[in-house]
Amino acid sequence: MTFLRQLPVLTLLCVLISGVFSGAQAQQQVPLNIAIVNIDKILGTAAAPKSILAQIKQIRDTYRQEVQKEEESLRQANQELAQKQSLLSPEAFKEERRKFEQNVLAVQKKVQQKNLSLQNAKQDAQNEVQSALRDVVLEISKEKGYTLVLRRN
User: Fold this and answer.
1) Which helix (H) or strand (E) holds 60?
2) pLDDT in tens, 100-137
3) Contact status, residue 37 vs residue 152, Cβ threshold 8 Å
4) pTM (2 decimals)?
5) I want to staple 125 with a disulfide (CB 3.0 to 4.6 A). Which of 19, 22, 52, 103 is the partner?
């Protein structure tokens, strides 16, 4: 029963809403020009991302060589410590062992910091490429008169 009472109000509301939308559509007679941008293809063929990857690889290889040298140094220090064990008193050996472990922790921390630095540099470079790509797409869309640009990954 209450539905029948509300039916005229709902009908009037629907008519008003459809009038508002049809009036808005009449005012916006802009043609829809759509562009689809294949981001993966652009990034796969562009020189900047390839250059970033090459530079990151070169830095990573340099870091790897540095880490290998430090690991070798730690191995030698560990072997020397093992040889000194029979010559040193328990307290002196314990102190030498503590120093060695501090060196190991310092090397681990250094490696983690270098990896983090490398990841941050890579992310910053990729963000710059994305920003430049966004600017280029915006400029081309304005030149070509695109009203809608869709991103395809």
Assistant:
1) helix 47-84
2) 999 999 999 999 999 999 999 999 999 999 999 999 99
3) yes
4) 0.65
5) 52
| The total number of residues written for the chain in this structure | 153
User: Is residue 42 within 8 Å of residue 136, measured between CB atoms?
Assistant: no
Q: Rounded CA gap, 21 and 28, in Å?
A: 11
Two structure tokens written together for 14: 């629907």
What are the b/e assignments for 65-91, b being 16+ CB within 10 Å? eebeebeeeeeeeeeeeeeeeeeeeee
d(CA 28, CA 38): 29
Q: Which residues of 95-131 are buried (b: 16+ CB within 10 A; e: fewer)?
A: ebbeeeeeeeeeeeeebeebeeeeeeebeebbeebee
Q: What is the pLDDT of residue 30?
A: 74
DSSP state letters, 84-150: HTTTS-HHHHHHHHHHHHHHHHHHHHHHHHHHHHHHHHHHHHHHHHHHHHHHHHHHHHHHHT-SEEE
C-alpha distance from residue 29 to each of 34, 50, 107, 138, 152 (Å): 15, 43, 66, 22, 27
